[in-house]
Amino acid sequence: MFRKHTNLVGQRICAERKRSGLSQEALAAQLYVTRQTISNWEVGKTMPDLESLKLLALALSVPIERLIYGEPLGFPVPWYQRIPWELWCRWLGVVVWAVGLLSGIWAGSGAVQTPDGGVGWGFQWKSALSIWYPALIRGVVLLSLSRILSVGKQQEP
């Protein structure tokens, strides 16, 4: 009746089941059906009836419309889900490092008193390091957060 490549409802059931972290057996137990029934719905051999769709939506914690029609067009993805946070953290980490390096050079450079009592150009490491250490730590934190977010995004079903 339904071909496998056009079975959008079955594909959505499968995707939502995996997103919820349920096996076919676990979902079948919640719906009081067999695992084969869930499998048949997902591959398109059969379609769930209306009551089964209602129970599926409840078990998967999704609106029934999402199982039938997919992601609703009238409801855009929230802004915080559209932002590539891992890229922002990576670039911000690099910027923090660069600005910290330049600020440390600027803070450490300047006029110093020479041994003969005159004034000359010099570099004060203490002033530079007081800028470099916090910049280094903040940059490492941001780059680590970027890595954690990118690994987490790769592991999503």
TrEMBL record:
Q: Which InterPro entries match?
A: Cro/C1-type_HTH, Lambda_DNA-bd_dom_sf
Q: Which UniProt keywords apply?
A: DNA-binding, Membrane, Plasmid, Transmembrane, Transmembrane helix
Amino-acid biosynthesis: present as a keyword of the record? no
Where do the TM regions start and end? 91-111, 131-149
Query: Has UniProt tagged this entry with the keyword Transmembrane?
Result: yes
Recorded hits in CDD domains, A to Z, give: HTH_XRE
Segments forming domain HTH cro/C1-type: 17-67
In terms of superkingdom, the source organism counts as Bacteria
Using the record for this protein, list the coiled-coil segments as residue ranges, or answer none.
none
A GO molecular-function annotation: DNA binding
Q: What is this protein called?
A: HTH cro/C1-type domain-containing protein
